[in-house]
Design a protein that fits this description.
Layout lengths: L4 E2 L13 H10 L4 E7 L10 H17 L3 E9 L11 H6 L2 E5 L6 H6 L3 H4 L5 H21 L4 E2 L10 H11 L2 E5 L4 H4 L2 H6 L4 E4 L12 H9 L7 E2 L13 H4 L1
Parallel strand pairs: 1-2, 2-3, 3-4, 4-5, 5-6, 6-7, 7-8
Bound molecules: zinc ion (2 copies).
One zinc ion binds next to loops.
Length: about 250
C-alpha cells in the first residue's frame, strides 16, 4: 500500500526519544510527504510537556518547513481530563497548533485527577457493570471535547476506555473529525470496527512512534485495513484522494 502521511508521533518534547529533525529525516527516508508531530498536552507528570517546550518545537518545525521535503505539521495530543471534555492543553497551544489530536490517557497530574471523576483511574479494569457506566461517561466526555474544541483527530478510540463508538463517530463524521488508525493501539479499535466503518467517518494514519524508527511503519494497520475492506480513499495518509483538512491550517493563517 502506498503510504505518504503519518499524523501522530512523539519527540523529546514529551515522552519520545528523538528530535523533530530526526523524525522528519526518517519520514523522508520512508517516502512520506507529510507528517504531524503530536506530543502530549501539559497535564501529565509522565509526559513532561510544557508550553515553553511546545513553543521551541514550533520554531524548530518552522525551520524544517523551509528546508525539508517533508511537510511537517505542528500537532498536539491532548488528553481528555473529565466529563465536560476539558483537555490538558492551554488554549494558546490549541490556537498555535496545526493539528489537534485528542484521546484518553491514564496518567494525569493531581490537579486534573482531583477535578476529574474516577473514570480516568478505573478505565481499563473493573466489573462488567462498572464498564457499562464507564462507557456512558467516556462517551459523554468524547462528545463534549468534540463540541468544545477544534478537534481534528480522535486517537486510539477504545484504548483503555470502553465507548459508544457509533455515537462518537456520528458526531465525528458530522464535524469532519478523523478517526485515527493507530499502529500501536489498532487492537483497541477491533471491537468497534464494524460500527466505526458503518458510520461513514474518515480515517487518518498515526504510527504513534516514540522514536524515529517507527515513523511511517504501519504493518498492523495495513493488515487491519485489508481485513476490514476499508477503501484507501477513506484513509488520510494512504489514499491519494484522501486529502487532510485540519480545522485550521497554521501555514495558511500565519
Ligand atoms: Zn496517546
Ligand atoms: Zn501518542
Amino acid at each position: 500500500m502506498g503510504i505518504f502521511g503519518d499524523y501522530h508521533m512523539h519527540t523529546r518534547a514529551s515522552d519520545g526519544r528523538d528530535t523533530v529533525a530526526a523524525m522528519a529525516r526518517r519520514a523522508e527516508e520512508a517516502g512520506l510527504s507529510e507528517i504531524a508531530i503530536a506530543d502530549h498536552g501539559c497535564g501529565s507528570f509522565m509526559f513532561r510537556q510544557t508550553e515553553e517546550k511546545f513553543r521551541a518545537q514550533q520554531t524548530e518545525i518552522a525551520k524544517l518547513r523551509d528546508e525539508g521535503r517533508v511537510r511537517v505539521l505542528s500537532g498536539i495530543e491532548g488528553s481528555i481530563t473529565g466529563e465536560d471534555g476539558t483537555l490538558d492543553v492551554p488554549d494558546e497551544m490549541i490556537r498555535a497548533c496545526d493539528v489537534l489530536v485528542v484521546g484518553f490517557h491514564r496518567f494525569l497530574s493531581l490537579r486534573y485527577i482531583a477535578k476529574a471523576p474516577s473514570f480516568l483511574l478505573v478505565n481499563g479494569w473493573g466489573s462488567k457493570r462498572a464498564k457499562e457506566k464507564l462507557k456512558a461517561l467516556n462517551t459523554r466526555a468524547w462528545l463534549a471535547a468534540m463540541r468544545r474544541y477544534p478537534v481534528d483527530v480522535l486517537c486510539h478510540l477504545g484504548h483503555r476506555a470502553p465507548v459508544d463508538a457509533a455515537a462518537i463517530c456520528r458526531l465525528a463524521a458530522e464535524k469532519g473529525i478523523y478517526v485515527e488508525l493507530n499502529e500501536k493501539h489498532i487492537d483497541a479499535l477491533e471491537a468497534y470496527a464494524d460500527e466505526v466503518i458503518a458510520s461513514g467517518v474518515k480515517f487518518i494514519l498515526g504510527s504513534d512512534a516514540h522514536s524515529a524508527k517507527g515513523v511511517g511503519a504501519f504493518p498492523r494497520t495495513e493488515e487491519f485495513i485489508k481485513r476490514h475492506g476499508i477503501e484507501e480513499e477513506r484513509v488520510v495518509g494512504m489514499g491519494a484522494k484522501a486529502e487532510f483538512h485540519p480545522k485550521k491550517d497554521f501555514i495558511a493563517t500565519k
